[in-house]
Amino acid sequence: MPATEMTPATKKGQEFLTSLKKDSFVKPTIVRDSTPGIKTTIIDENNEMIECDSFVSFSPEAIDSFPGSYIAPLTFQRTLEGQIPQESLKFDEMVGDRFGTMGEPTYSYSSKQFNVTILHGATNDKAIQLARIAKEGFTPENRAYYQQAVADMIKPAIQDSSKRKGSLIIHDDCLASTVSVAGYIADLKEHNSTLLENGVDIIIDGPATAQGILFLQKFAEVNNIKISITASFLAFGLTEGNKKANGTREHANYITLPEELFGYLPVTAQKKYEEFSPHDKDRAVVGDMGNAGEGIPQEILDSMFQMGAGELDSTFCEWNDTRTDPHHPKNNGRKVELDKWDPSKRKTITYFPRGGYICYAYDKTFNAEQFMDTNTLMIGATRLWSPKNGYGVAYGVKK
Questions:
Q1: Alpha helices of 28-178 — where are they, by DSSP H?
Q2: What is the mean pLDDT of residues 375-386?
Q3: Which of 12, 27, 42 is nearest to 398 (CA)?
Q4: Cβ pair 180, 393 in contact under 8 A
Q5: Cβ-proximal residues to 203 (8 Å cutoff; 6+ apart), any chain
Q6: Residues 321, 327, 329, 335, CA torsion sign
Q7: pLDDT over 70, % of the chain
Q8: How far apart are CA 232 and CA 366, in angstroms?
Q9: In the Cβ-directed half-sphere of 152, how many Cα atoms lie within 13 Å?
Q10: What pLDDT, in 10s, does the model give residues 40-67?
């Protein structure tokens, strides 16, 4: 394809950026019963009734703009920061293999309303390890290595909570289309705005997409909410998925490394990807994060330690045996144990199960002290399509 011809993914990304200029692009529609404590009923695409606390959707234009889109790193930076001089462009840093710190992140941007901190380059060894395991599939052993790689990347952000200024913290596994995160904040703004008084800090264990970050930047501006995002690394593509007869999509918005970007990566990174996915057009950046976060049977870890011949130290998957959530087989599906709500605490941290269980385990392992002044919420966030209400997220689904 000639270099001057725009690929479908790049064209979709440009359409996303054009739509992003309109305030209506980030305007939510919230369905919630006016009586406190009463569930809302949503009819899903299978004509089943879903009972939830609320259902938040965005415009069809917004929802349709994410799947199949690619936003180039420098396009992302220029959109986020505005006009910047050539010497300030950070392409090499964003897609490189550098492992950063909170004090010296790979990329950062700060404004009065919106802040972004990206700890590591997109092709750091841990990120490539996630992609390789996603390609291989999740055995219990692979799942353990995957969890450890994620922990190694996000641990600095968890430990250094001093920079968090928001009264609300959202800790999630990855940021793709960001519908779940933006919808949750929109719902709180309308029905429990006190949680947003000092803004929102978003911690992302894995990748955050250019699309998701730019959507949240516009969302913060339109809604006058301070938002700060800290993520392990950046990603730039989303899968298109398969469109069904009823207009819904299967396998859409999975995070990818697009072919448009692959040839511009450092040669060493290209070779590493080609070792395990030599013929893939758009390579998966991560696997199913909910699947990845499942607890590891202790006998599997014991075997790994015995076979590892000293390669694994005592901190390997150290959070595993302390987990109390239903996503660990040893707990037989019991409800996660959270501290009692304390109105005197200044902050609240929210997790979205299933993936949120491992986020909570990381927090309890690497910075348990934060909970002395922070309440904890586990809010079910189920993405679904409703013939009446469109595509959105149902929060607090009744099981």
A1: 60-65, 73-81, 91-95, 125-136, 140-159
A2: 93
A3: 42
A4: yes
A5: 154, 157, 158, 169, 170, 171, 172, 230, 231, 359
A6: positive
A7: 97
A8: 16
A9: 16
A10: 999 998 889 999 999 999 999 999 999 9
